């Protein structure tokens, strides 16, 4: 999967450093060259995206929301 266009200007490429799993939502810490970005997303999304510690992702920041997009396979 490649992201060619998106309307979010604040994008930070990094690798997942830690995942703190919860029954419904989980915290994902992404280590970027600018520091750690933390996202709270559903635990189901973590499974659906097959996110793991070490996965390369892009943290998409808009206002107070941080989304995660997985890079590659």
Structural description of this entry:
The protein is built from 1 helix and 5 strands; from the N terminus they run βββαββ. With 73 residues, the protein is mainly β. It has one domain: Beta Barrel (OB fold (Dihydrolipoamide Acetyltransferase, E2P)). A 5-stranded antiparallel β-sheet has the order 3-2-1-4-5. The longest helix has 6 residues, at 43-48.
Short description:
The protein has one helix spanning 43-48; strands at residues 10-20, 25-32, 35-42, 56-62, 65-70. It has 73 residues and is mainly beta. The chain has a single domain, classed as Beta Barrel (OB fold (Dihydrolipoamide Acetyltransferase, E2P)), CATH 2.40.50.100.
Individual helix count:
1
In the CATH hierarchy, the third-tier topology is known as OB fold (Dihydrolipoamide Acetyltransferase, E2P)
Number of extended strands: 5
Largest sheet: 5 strands, antiparallel
CA(first)-CA(last) distance: 7 Å
CATH architecture: Beta Barrel
Structural class: mainly beta
Mean pLDDT: 87
Give the SSE map:
Layout lengths: L9 E11 L4 E8 L2 E8 H6 L7 E7 L2 E6 L3
